[in-house]
Write a structure and sequence with these properties.
The complex is a heterodimer of chains A (157) and B (177). With 157 residues, chain A is an alpha+beta fold. Chain A has helices at residues 2-11, 103-124, 133-155, and strands at residues 17-23, 28-33, 36-38, 43-46, 54-65, 74-85, 88-98. Chain A has a domain at 2-98: Electron Transport, Fmn-binding Protein, Chain A (Pnp Oxidase, Chain A, Roll), CATH 2.30.110. In chain A, a hairpin with a 4-residue loop joins strand 1 (17-23) and strand 2. Chain B has 177 residues and is α+β, with helices and mostly antiparallel strands. Chain B has a single domain, classed as Pnp Oxidase, Chain A (Roll), CATH 2.30.110.10. Chain B is 25% helix and 31% strand. In chain B, strands 1, 2, 3, 4, 5, 6, 7 and 8 form an eight-stranded antiparallel sheet that branches. Chain B is globular and about 55 Å long. The chains are: A alpha+beta (157), B alpha+beta (177). Chains A and B meet through strand 1, strand 2, strand 5, strand 6 and helix 2 of A and strand 1, strand 2, strand 5, strand 6 and helix 4 of B.
Chain lengths: 157, 177
């Protein structure tokens, strides 16, 4: 019930979600949907199109957002299962998985990511690759200059 | 700003309608699903790059966020759903679902010519990222190195489905490869 409550609380910030399950061949299959919470059963009703060969079983619910400039990223996921009952589908969550968005998530991403990256290299005996920051910053300046030129043409400036 | 249209784009390579190719080219992200050890599909948004000469997608991931690569090395079956048109400039585009087989080699990516074009495209599409990238003063920049240590994930499509006008209630088109 804890996962269901957390999802229901977060769902208010999104227009829709993506539900992912598996098909008859074992491949992931996903569609966008509008989950409808059902507190009595601690599930979410989801509509899936016919003909995809979706199977009952392990499933994932994702909500994510970015703005027109591919920024203000936020997201969350939920692990659970997809159940078929009486011709309709329900997602039964088991665990809420935080994603991006907010200061806490950013710190978690940065600190955890850095620690895991070091572990990845150590486990495989790899040296940390040098990052050509000067080149990356140069690309940044080139793109910014091009964008400004295009914007001033568009606005007649 | 839109990416330049490759003379051979996704639609031409796989024989799907031009509007499906436009989705692959212009959408800022797709919802990428891999399979966890227990078989649960795990789905997060990511930014894919289509490589027409190789008939495959390239997705990169920091080694600090390597779970999708670990999943792929165990089970290569993946799916990519293009269902969020925000920022694409497209009006009533189709939803596109691509299922395929992925590989995630152990060696890390290098900032070569291909990565320069990807970095450029990312900066074009994510202007606030430009501000942040390099916001750390030089001596502290190494703290962000981990984010640039990238694993390469290649996805070869096996089945492409699309729903006109982003409506899952409509009949879908399909190409099986």
């Amino acid at each position: 019930m804890r996962a269901w409550r957390a999802i229901t609380r977060e769902l208010r910030h999104y227009d829709s979600a993506v539900i992912a399950a598996r098909d008859r061949d074992g491949y992931p299959v996903s569609v966008r949907c509008v989950p409808i919470p059902d507190e009595r059963t601690a599930t979410f009703a989801v509509a899936l199109p016919e003909g995809l060969g979706v199977e009952s079983g392990p499933a994932w619910l994702l909500c994510h957002f970015h703005d027109e400039r591919f920024w203000s990223l936020r997201s969350f996921g939920a692990r659970g299962s997809l159940e078929r009952t009486g011709g309709s589908w329900r997602f039964r969550p088991a665990r809420f998985v935080p994603g991006m968005g907010g200061v806490a998530a950013s710190i978690r991403l940065f600190v955890g990511g850095r620690r895991r990256a070091r572990g990845y290299l150590a486990t495989r005996g790899l040296e940390p690759p040098a990052i050509p920051w000067d080149r990356i910053i140069a690309i940044k300046h080139e793109v910014r200059a091009t964008t400004r030129r295009n914007d001033s043409r568009t606005t007649g400036g | 700003m839109s990416a330049a249209v490759s003379p051979v784009d996704f639609a031409a390579v796989f024989g799907v309608p031009a509007e499906v190719g436009a989705v692959v080219r212009e959408f800022r992200s797709c919802e990428f699903s891999t399979l966890a050890r227990d078989g649960t599909p795990v789905t997060w948004p990511t930014m894919p790059f289509f490589e027409p000469d190789w008939r495959r997608f390239l997705i990169t991931s920091s080694i600090g966020l390597a779970q999708k690569a670990v999943n792929i090395r165990r089970d290569p079956r993946v799916a990519m759903l293009f269902s969020n048109p925000t920022g694409s400039g497209l009006v009533s585009p189709p939803f596109v679902l691509i299922q395929g087989d992925a590989e995630a080699p152990e060696e890390l990516g290098q900032l070569d010519e291909r990565f320069e074009s990807m970095t450029r495209l990312l900066f074009e599409r994510q202007p606030f990222g430009i501000t942040l990238m390099g916001a750390l003063p030089g001596p502290l920049r190494h703290l962000a190195d981990w984010y640039c240590w990238r694993i390469l994930v290649y996805v070869r499509p096996r089945r492409i489905r699309w729903w006109p006008q982003g409506n899952f209630g409509r009949a879908y088109g399909e190409v099986v490869l």
